[in-house]
Design goal:
Blueprint lengths: L1 H73 L4 H34 L5 H70 L1 E7 L1 H6 L3 E2 L2 E2 L11 E4 L5 E3 L5 E3 L8 E5 L5 E5 L2 H4 L5 E6 L1
Parallel strand pairs: 1-9
Antiparallel strand pairs: 1-4, 2-3, 5-8, 6-9, 7-8
Helix pairs in contact: 1-2, 1-3, 2-3
Length: about 280
């Protein structure tokens, strides 16, 4: 009997030990399960916060780029500033699209997450409002830049038109100046010739005692010059007679040391006022 009781006592003891071990295993399993849940929630939260921080950084960079565009827009226009504006506007458009995509990802992650975070949802909604406000400002900035570009283009067309007008006026003025110069040259051109009667008759400059009676005389026999610069004419002759009409008080016809006549014009304008041709008969 004692042996039987001992055996029963041992069996009960072993049974108690087995129950305690099973309970410990169950507790450990529950603890491991809770730890996995905590770890998963930490990973989810870290992922959400990482995306949230990226969106905030994107908003900050867009604000900086927007400031650079505003500064460049207010500066003096040149090729460099226009390139800065273009590059920053491209960056803003890309960054805004990335932010919209990440907001959509945040919404999806929060929707599928086991984390019930009402404050996080409100924060995301606040981020979305900031992005939409940025989009409205960027749209206004684009409209302002487009208006400025149109104004610059119109100014460019106006400047081009003015340049063409200036070029046309310059060409007109040049043509007029050449015409005036030519007219001045013609108005101040005089022809003179001296020679014997037979020489002058041969060239039809003298005809039956008359000088330049007909218009078919040989004009190339004359020497052409600027009447304002003709002051003296050497006849190389000891006898000389002026055949054309010139005011007597506008010149002198006197012999030099070689006893040859020299015509000295003392008043050019007056001398050539009656005739632009001078004919001197010599012997």
């Amino acid at each position: 009997m004692k042996k039987i009781l001992l055996l029963v006592a041992c069996a009960l003891g072993l049974s108690a030990c087995n129950l305690t071990g099973e309970k410990q295993d169950a507790v450990q399993q529950e603890r491991d399960s809770l730890q996995r849940i905590i770890n998963e929630k930490d990973i989810e939260l870290d992922d959400i916060l990482s995306t949230f921080n990226e969106v905030q950084e994107g908003i900050r960079r867009i604000n900086e780029a927007e400031g650079r565009v505003t500064i460049a827009d207010g500066s003096r226009e040149n090729a460099s500033s226009r390139e800065v504006i273009r590059e920053n506007m491209e960056f803003i458009q890309q960054a805004m699209q990335q932010n919209r995509d990440m907001i959509a990802q945040l919404q999806e992650k929060l929707k599928n997450s086991s984390i019930k975070a009402t404050k996080m949802q409100k924060t995301i909604e606040n981020l979305q409002s900031q992005i939409e406000a940025q989009a409205a400002r960027i749209q206004e900035l684009e409209a302002s830049l487009a208006e400025k570009d149109a104004l610059i283009e119109a100014q460019g067309d106006a400047i081009a038109g003015l340049s063409n007008d200036v070029a046309s006026l310059t060409e007109d003025n040049r043509a007029k100046a050449e015409k005036v110069q030519q007219q001045d040259k013609e108005l101040n051109t005089a022809w003179f010739v001296f020679g014997t009667k037979s020489e002058l008759k041969e060239q039809k400059i003298l005809t039956k005692g008359d000088v330049l009676k007909n218009g078919d005389f040989n004009n190339s026999f004359f020497t052409k010059g600027d009447l304002r610069k003709i002051t003296t004419i050497q006849t190389n002759s000891k006898k000389a007679t002026i055949m054309t009409s010139h005011p007597s008080d506008s010149y002198t016809l006197e012999k030099n040391g070689n006893k040859e006549y020299v015509l000295t014009i003392t008043n050019q304008a007056k001398f050539w006022s009656i005739s632009k041709y001078l004919v001197i008969v010599t012997k």
